[in-house]
Amino acid sequence: MNNKKSTFILVALSFLLVVGFSVQVLAGETYKMACSLAITGPTSDVGSPYAKGVEDYTRYVNDEKLLGDDQLITYVRDDGYKTEVTKRNFEEFLDEDIVFYLNYSTGSTMALRQDFQEEKIPVLPASFHAGNLEGNDYVFLPIASYSSQAVGLAEYVAANHKGSGKPKVALFLHPSAFGRAPRDDVQKSIDAGLGIDLVEIVEHGKDLDNTAMLQRFQSKGVQYVISQTVQPPVATMLKGAQSLGMIATTYGEEGKITFLGCHYGGGPALVTLAGSAANENYYWTTSYKMMTAKGPGRDAQFALAKRYGRDENIAKDANYTNGIMVAQVAVETIRRAKAKGKKITRETLYEELLAMNGFNAYNTLTTVGPVTFSKTDREGVDTLQLYVTKGGLFYEVGAPFVSEYVKKIKQ
Predict the structure, then answer these.
(1) Is the dihedral of CA 40, 111, 106, 50 positive or negative?
(2) pLDDT, tens digit, for every residue of 280-318?
(3) I need a surface site. Which of 312, 322, 392, 405 has the fewest CB within 10 A?
(4) Arch. (CATH architecture) of 30-144+294-377
(5) How far apart are CA 5 and CA 123, in angstroms?
(6) Class of domain 146-286+386-410
(7) Mean of the pLDDT values across residues 168-183?
(8) Percent share of the chain, pLDDT over 90
(9) CB 159 within 8 A of CB 89
């Protein structure tokens, strides 16, 4: 009797082990990626909504089984915009066997380029600095670079200026590699024939009073200011210009200044920070779609934000869109590799990024053009859209475009 009972128990245990193994197999694989960014610190106005976009899209992928029975884990950590913390985060992420990495700042991307090369891990940063692509093969820019954005704005100024002579322009830059990124390419474009007069280049400080700078601009006849920085200093400048009565009420208004900004120098959060100073006639360019444009992209983003309990300000934020988009691209590389029967590794995902072009371009619905990459072009969405504020909202100006002078200076 004891032998029969022992045999029954062993058979039952064997059955449970087989069932458990089968359930584990059916549960699918788990893929890991990671993101280090400034949820707190001096650029948290960007990093916080960006992180929420990454988190929400990851949850959506798993909830909707976009990867079938496979699961995606995305580790998201705050680095406070400190390169040494980013580096430590990245090293700890490697211990988790991540296959894809989402970095943040220009400084940390530049500092870690060789690490990415050694680890052979595909990287999408929040920084659109073209210099991130130099000295490594594994960094890919999600959208058009800061240089493309600033030169594109300068082209618009040159083409639409109605006064006599060349339009007088000043650059308002963040005091970092991030801010300086487009400076030389704007000058190269001028040397190549772009019809603007670059009067002054200013690297802003932490001043809460830009009166002296703005009065200097006015004394030099500056008509347009192009900003390559983050939203808070732009908001401070706009408030100062408003108090001095300098903001143009129409594009290129004589005797006033028309303000324009690259991606991180604009968006809905700028209006929140600057109030009425940014409500009208602030020009801004990015490759992302705004939530004022009706269509499936807008509907999907609002639905995602609502699903995961985000408020309306987050739902409309361009950097929430930004975070969603980089997660989309990472997931799409996994999906494509799976469809080809490949094992999901850093190498196979890198291969899928390089193949994302031509008929294999990726349309995200979050951008104004397709994502394309290759061995010779790791700058994702080449297309830009110009926007302008009306009643505190950003609306499209004209059709999406690609900077002509960036093409010229790259030749």
Answers:
(1) negative
(2) 999 999 999 999 988 899 999 999 999 999 999 999 999
(3) 312
(4) 3-Layer(aba) Sandwich (3.40)
(5) 58
(6) alpha beta
(7) 95
(8) 88
(9) no
